[in-house]
Amino acid sequence: MPVRTLLLGGLTTGFHQFWTHAPALRGLLAEHDCDVRCSEDIEVLASPGLAAAYDLIVNITTGRQLSPAQETGLLGFLRGGGGLCGIHSATDSFKDSAQYMAAIGGRFLRHPPQLDIAVEFTDPEHPVTAGLPPFSVRDELYILDWNPETVHLLARTFSHEGSPQPVSWVRQEGSGRVFYVSLGHNRDTYDVPTFRTWVGRGARWAAGAL
What we know:
The chain is an alpha/beta fold. The protein has a single domain (3-206), classed as 3-Layer(aba) Sandwich (Rossmann fold). It is built from five helices and eleven strands; from the N terminus they run βαβαβαβαβββββββα. The strands form two sheets. Strands 2-1-3-4-11-10-9-6-7 form a nine-stranded mixed β-sheet.
């Protein structure tokens, strides 16, 4: 069955314009049997019917804040068995919510100028990354505040100053699953075949459909 997916965008900055990225991300998800609805209205998170309507929330918002009702709705959806897929700026949004930050697994700190990022998959056995080759993409690398003891690392890079930086992870939150990838600032990144497979699998894994 298709994964009923809410692709959630919106921003408080001039970056990550949703309607620039949404068509590419929606197409990527559709290739992996996700039935996608796009919205910038985060009030949907407070809807009592959220879990009945969706299997997966894909978050690509930037700098937004959650009301108490929205926070309760999102965390209840996730901990009750829903999936959360965070793309790029998902760690730079809802930062007023300590519970969301813990759930997504990390917090954006800063980023260097864009660079060629060599992605190395760290778990070739995981269903999200099995068989994927290392690859490079020019994008914006997030430097993240994260705890390796609370996430399962899937990918990293040494491209910034030779020190390892996380690029992707998965984790469990209650009965729900979280997949996060820090790349995706540039529209062209969504055309890279390995990225498309990786994110599509990650979304389905988070929804419990992989």
